[in-house]
Structures are given as C-alpha cells and as structure tokens.
Amino acid sequence: MTEIIKVCKRHGELKREDVIKQGKNKINEARFKCKSCMKEIHHANYEKNKDKIYVRTRKWKKDNAERLNELRLKYYWQYKEKDHEKKIERDRKYHNKSSMELNDVYVKHVITKRTNLKYSDIPDELVKLKRSLLEAQRKIRQNLMVNKGKKLNENKKC
Amino acid sequence: MKIKNAEELRNHILRKIEEVDSGKIDIEELSITSKAGETIYSSIKLELAYSNMRGEIPNIDFLQSCNKGKPGKLLENKKVN
Predict the structure, then answer these.
(1) Which residues of chain B have a pLDDT value below 70?
(2) Is the C-alpha dihedral spanning A141, A143, A146, A150 positive or negative?
(3) CA separation for the pair B4, A147 (Å, rounded)
(4) Of A120, A128, A133, which is closest to B34 when you measure between CB atoms?
C-alpha cells in the first residue's frame, strides 16, 4: 500500500502519483503540491496570458532554430522504433476493421488503387456499387473454400 | 433483364446474395452477375480516370441517373471553367 504524502483541501489525501515535487523546505525536506490543483492553476494562467506566451514561444523558436532542430532529431531517434511498432499495430488494426466493415475509406482505397484518381473524385454511387461487388466476391470465395474443404474430406475418406 | 443505372445493379447484386443465402439459387448464378457487374464497374472507372486525366468533368449517365432529377455530385463539386 502506498503512503499518503500530502493532504489537499480540495482533493483530500494524496499519494505519490497525485503530487508534484516542489523543491525543499527550510529543514531540507521535500515539498509537494497537488497535481490536479496545479494543473488548473497552470491552465488558468495560460488562458489569461495566451497571446504573450504565443509571442514568446515564437520568438524563442526563431532565435534557437538550431537547438530546436537538435531537440527534434533527438526526440525522433529516441522514439522512432517504439512509435514505429505502435504505428504498424494501429494501422493493422484499422485496416482489418475497415476491410471487415467495408467502410467508405476502404472501398475508395480499393477503387483508386493503381490509378491517378483521388478519393474526392469518386462519386458515392460508385462506392456503393463497388461495395456490393466486393460483398458478392467474398460470398463466392467463401463458398469455394467450403466446397474445397468438402472435396478434400471426401478424398480422405476414399 | 435490362439494368438502367448503378442503383438497380447494386440492388440486383444484393438480391442475388440474399437468394444464395436462402438457397434459392446456385452460387454460379451470383458469380455470373458479379462478373457482369465488375465489367460495368471497370468501364465506369476507366471513363472516370480518363476524364480526370484530361481535366474534364466526368459525365457518366449510369451513375448520375441514380440521383433522380438532381444534378450529379461530381457536377456539384467541380466548378466549370
């Protein structure tokens, strides 16, 4: 069981994951602040000084272009592999789902494959037509597979 | 049977699929319909691709007749120069 570190007036007893470290006090003990209270304060502060912050960050980015590039590259190489695996998994999940449901994006992808057409060029009627054709093709393929299985079973019995 | 537009063709295919499910017709009949539908679809796609390549507005009667009196979506979206 985790220890209670701080008691907040609004959020009650707080554990380690609900607090932020905030320096040390006079007798060299660590000080903590409530995470959700601080989040609200920071958000209110940001909303109040939005324009100033925007100008300041723009200026910093302009002045420190090289440093920004370095940081971006560092982040890129640090998370590349991790993000890449995640991305592949996410894409695979989405592709499987869309191909099962035959949604508009998937059907448009099938239609525009190996053509110079864009998704916006394809009329809805053509999408609906292609969807019904794909359904029919799947039905035929399914039927063929069942028949093949039956034939193989018969051959085994003989 | 004469099919006039894409909507009719779609309904025809879906009806055939239902009939196959219920066991009224054989799967071969569905495959014949599907092949015919695929031929029509590929010719429409070709026409669409050609008109896109030429930078023209595609004017395909087989698709536009589905809108029943309304202008085709393609004509609505693309402005005529």
Answers:
(1) 65-81
(2) negative
(3) 35
(4) A133
Q: ipTM of the predicted structure?
A: 0.79
Q: What span, in angstroms and rounded, lies between the C-alpha atoms of B30 and B22?
A: 13
Pair of tokens at residue B22: 């219920």
Return d(Cα A141, Cα A152) in angstroms, integer: 17
Helices (DSSP H) in chain A: which residue ranges?
Answer: 35-48, 50-63, 65-101, 104-112, 124-157
| CA gap A147, A49 in Å, rounded | 71
CB contact under 8 A, B37 and A133: yes
- Tell me whether residues B34 and A122 touch, CB distance under 8 A: no
Helix (H, G, I), strand (E, B) or coil at B80: coil
Q: Give the minimum alpha-carbon distance from B52 to chain A in angstroms, rounded to a whole number.
A: 7
Full-model pTM: 0.60
Q: Which residues of B touch A140 (CB under 8 A)?
A: 27, 30-31, 34
- Report, as ranges of residue numbers, the positions in chain A whose pLDDT lies below 70: 1
Residue of chain B nearest A114, judged by CA positions: B49
Nearest by Cα to B77 from A55, A122, A150, A57: A122
Closest residue on chain B to A117 (Cα):
B49
Flag if A130 and B41 touch (Cβ within 8 Å): yes
Backbone angles phi, psi at A12, to 5 degrees: 75, -145
